Amino acid sequence: MNTVCAIVGVGPGNGLALVRRFAREGYRVAMLSRDIDRLKGWEQEIPGTHAYRFDATEGERAHAVFKQVREDLGAVSVLLFNAGGGVFKSAEQVTLQEFEDSWRINCYGLLATVQAVLGQLREHDRASLVITGASAALRGRAATAPFASAKAGQRSLAQSLARQLGPENIHVAYVVIDGVVDLPRTRQAMPDKPDDFFLSPDAVADSVWFLTRQARSAWTFELDLRPFGESW
After folding, report:
1. What CATH number does the domain containing 212 carry?
2. Residue 197's pLDDT band (boundaries 50, 70, 90)?
3. Which Gene3D superfamilies would you find in this protein's record (predicted)?
4. In this structure, is residue 55 part of a structural domain?
5. pTM for this structure?
6. How many domains does the chain have?
7. What's the domain range around 221?
8. pLDDT surpasses 90 at 136
C-alpha cells in the first residue's frame, strides 16, 4: 500500500493532530500551509513529515506544489483538506472583498487542490479525500453570512466529488466540526469553560483516520463531531 498523506492547512490544532496521527501510522506526510517556518519546526520534530509552503487561495500554484510532493514522496493516496477560515459578519456588515476571501479559501482552494492531486489519487486501488467542514455549512446564523455561505458551497462541492469519485474507489468524506477546538488561544479566550466544552484535536484526528479505513460497502460521506455539551 502506498502511504503518502498530504494535509493542506496545517496549524497548531486539527492540522497538527492529523499530521501526528498519520505519521504515527507510518505515512509519509506532506504538510502544507502558508507558514513554512512553523512547518519546518514540526518537520524536525515529527519523523516522516515534509514541509511545503502552499496557500490554498493561490490555486495557480497547486499543480507545481503537488508535483514536487510526488517527486519527493510518491503519489498521494490520502488528501486531507483542512484549510479554512472566514469572516463572521452579517450580510449587511461584510465587504465584498471579505465575502470573496471566504469563498476563495473554502471553495476555490478545495477545487484547486483536488484538481492538482486527483491524478495521483487515481493511481491507487483505493484513496481518500477528507474535507474539514463546519456546522455553518448546514445553517447560516445572522452573523455568519460570508463563512456559512462559503462552507455550504464547500459541502456541496464535496458531495459532488463524492458522487463522481466513489465509483473510482476514491472515498470522499466531509467532517462537520461543531464546537470550539481546544487551542491555547481558545482556552485563553474562554478561561471559565471546562475541559469537556472543547473539541480535542487528537480525537478529531482519530475520527478522520477511521474514515480513511472504512470498507467501501459502508462509507460515510458526512460525519459530525461535537462535544456532548454543544447546543445543536
Report:
1. 3.40.50.720
2. confident
3. NAD(P)-binding Rossmann-like Domain (3.40.50.720)
4. yes
5. 0.95
6. 1
7. 4-225
8. no
Does a structural domain hold residue 231? no
Interval 154-173 mean pLDDT: 98
Stretch 74-103: mean pLDDT = 93
Q: Under 8 Å CB-to-CB from 230, ≥6 apart: which residues? A: 178, 179
User: CB pairs under 8 A, 24+ apart, for 106-109?
Assistant: 106/150, 106/151, 106/153, 106/154, 107/150, 107/153, 107/154, 107/157, 108/56, 108/57, 108/59, 109/8, 109/56, 109/57, 109/59, 109/81, 109/83
**Is 230 a member of any domain?**
no
**Hey, what's the cell of 54?**
502552499
Strand partners, 165: none
Q: 109: phi > 0 → left, psi -120 to 50 → alpha, else beta; which?
A: alpha
**Residue ranges in the chain assigned as alpha helix (H):** 14-24, 36-45, 62-73, 96-103, 109-121, 145-165, 184-189, 201-212
What is the chain's length?
Answer: 232
